[in-house]
Structure formats: structure tokens, C-alpha cells
Amino acid sequence: MTDLSNFDPNSVGNPNNNIFGLPFSEEEARLIILPIPWEVTVSYNAGTARAPEHIYNSSLQVDLYDADVIDGWKQGFYMRPCDKKVLMKSDYLRKEAELYINYIAHEEIVADNKFMFKSLNEINAGSDFLNNWVFERTKELLDSGKLVGLLGGDHSTPLGFMKAIAEKHGDYGILQIDAHCDLRKSYEGFTYSHASIMYNALEEIPQISKIVQVGIRDYCEEEVDYISANKERVVTYFDKDLKERLYEGESWKQLVDEMVDHLPGKVYISFDIDGLDPKLCPHTGTPVQGGFETEQVFYLFKK
Predict the structure, then answer these.
(1) Is 13 a member of any domain?
(2) Is there a domain that residue 148 lies in?
(3) What CA–CA distances, in Å, run from 154 to 101, 185, 194, 257?
(4) Residue 23's CB: how many other CB atoms inside 10 A?
(5) DSSP 110-128
């Protein structure tokens, strides 16, 4: 057990300790945060692979007190170091992906270009590698009795974790807070794209009994068709509909209670930062998303 007799939770975070300045080792901590420095399939700006490192550094400025869970931090949080090999593989494949995305943006045919065809195969193989890497590490942590959180990274990263949860816990549901459905069969030719994570989860993990999506405001016709064809497993709360129901007098608590009622007893939370309402840039007045486009933390909990 960690000796906290000389630890001051009201003081500045100690950089010699772990995340939030907490003095827990991995063995002592209840929650292990696994950073996933991966951004191969992002379709807008890169940078998410470095999100775990930035969040770790910023965590030293976060107070530990939680009015809802007094002394919750004493259960122990520990964040593993970023795996440099995964980061290097992500950086290499990201460069290939950028060339490939630019190529197809001009409506060029991939099969006509041997280099681009090879790049696409390498990127999809890299995604397979990451899925297996995440599965093995999260399974190991779950089997040792730990709670596990993933911190990414682009939104393709958690599929291996979802499979490990299914193997460990059986049936469960997903609460997805996101601006996007992520229900495309593939995107830009990438089988395991960030835009396909929930499609792949539903198609490859039968133990997922329900996905409840909240805040969706950017989606395509293919995804609408998929939702309509899978109503027993997918419940989508579009941002427009939520705003209308609030305007008509329903409370946020009523809406949240309804969302939760759709979910089974065991729930996995997927939080994509763009699920928050966009804010206006103070300089230009244009809508922006805060920080990295796809930072996410995942937990499995019981209702």
C-alpha cells in the first residue's frame, strides 16, 4: 500500500511522481491509463498522437479534490509511459497516409499507382498491428484486476480494448459522446479508420448489445442507413433533436435518464472531445473545437 502520510493533496503536483502528481506505482494503482500515441487515420490535422504526453504534463495543474467522490484519488491512478515504438510506427505511417489522402483527394485511382496501393496495404496492416497491441495490453491489465482507461490518439485506437472487455466481461453497452457517428464501413480506403470505429465494434464484437450515441451533428447518408437498419443495437441522439427537445421544455436530466435507460448494466464510455458544443474563436468568430480533435478516455463501469 502506498504511504501517503507525507503526501499533500493540496500542494502543486510533483513532476517526480506520476499523472496528477500522484505517488502510486502501477502495482498499487486501481486505474491504469494506457496512452495510445497513434494518429495514422486522422483525416484532418495531425497532433493527436502527442495528446497523452500533453495531458500528462497538464495534469500536474489539476486539483485532486472531487466533491462527488471524496478521496477518490486515494484509490490510485497510474499512467504508463508512451510506447516509443508505437509512436514511431504512427509517425511513419502518418506520412504515408498524408500522401495517400492527398492522392485520392484528386480522384486518382489507387489501383493505377503501385506506390499508393502499397501504402494503403501498409496502413491497414499497421492498424491490424495496433488493434492486436491494444488487445494484448488491455487484456493483461483486466486479467490482473485493474480498471483500464485509454488515452489517445485518433478514434480508431480502442477496438482492441473493446474486444478485451468482451472477453473479460461478456455483454456490455457503449455510451458514445461524439460529434460523429463513426459508423462508416471504411473511410478513405482505411478499414480501421477513426470514422469506422463503432461500425467495426458492432460488426466484430457481438457482445456489444447497445450503443447510445450522444451529440451527433456531422454524419453521412451511409451512417443514417446503418442506424435505421440496426435500431435494436444503435440509439442515436442527434444534437439537433436534443436542442429541440430542450427548447420544448424537457430537462437535461430527463434526457440523460432516457439515454441511460437504453444501456445494459455494464457500460463502456467513449468520449471524443468534439462531442462538446463548438465554441466561437474569440479572434475570428468562427466555430472551433477545443484542443485535439480526438482525445478520449474510456472506462468500463456498472450502472
Answers:
(1) no
(2) yes
(3) 16, 17, 6, 29
(4) 16
(5) GGG-HHHHHHHHHHHHHHH
The single-letter code of the amino acid at 20 is F
Number of domains in the chain: 1
The backbone torsions φ and ψ at residue 257, rounded to the nearest 5 degrees and listed phi first, read: -60, -40
CA gyration radius for the chain? 20
The predicted pLDDT at position 237 comes to 98
**pTM, whole model, 2 decimals?**
0.88
What pLDDT score was predicted for residue 11? 92
Per-residue model confidence as pLDDT tens digits over 205-245 = 999 999 999 999 999 999 999 999 999 999 999 999 999 99
Classify residue 5: in a domain, yes or no.
Answer: no
Give the ranges where 154-269 is alpha helix by DSSP (H): 159-169, 197-204, 221-229, 239-247, 252-261
Domain range for 211: 19-302
Residue 193: count of CB within 10 angstroms of its CB: 26
What one-character DSSP code corresponds to residue 67? Answer: S
Cα distances (angstroms) measured from residue 221 to each of 44, 105, 178, 228 = 20, 20, 17, 11
CATH number at residue 215: 3.40.800.10
Look at residue 301 in the predicted model and tell me its pLDDT: 53
State how far Cα 180 lies from the chain centre. Answer: 12
In a domain, 6, yes or no: no
Strands (E), 132-205: 147-152, 172-177
Count of C-beta atoms within a 10 Å radius of residue 189:
19
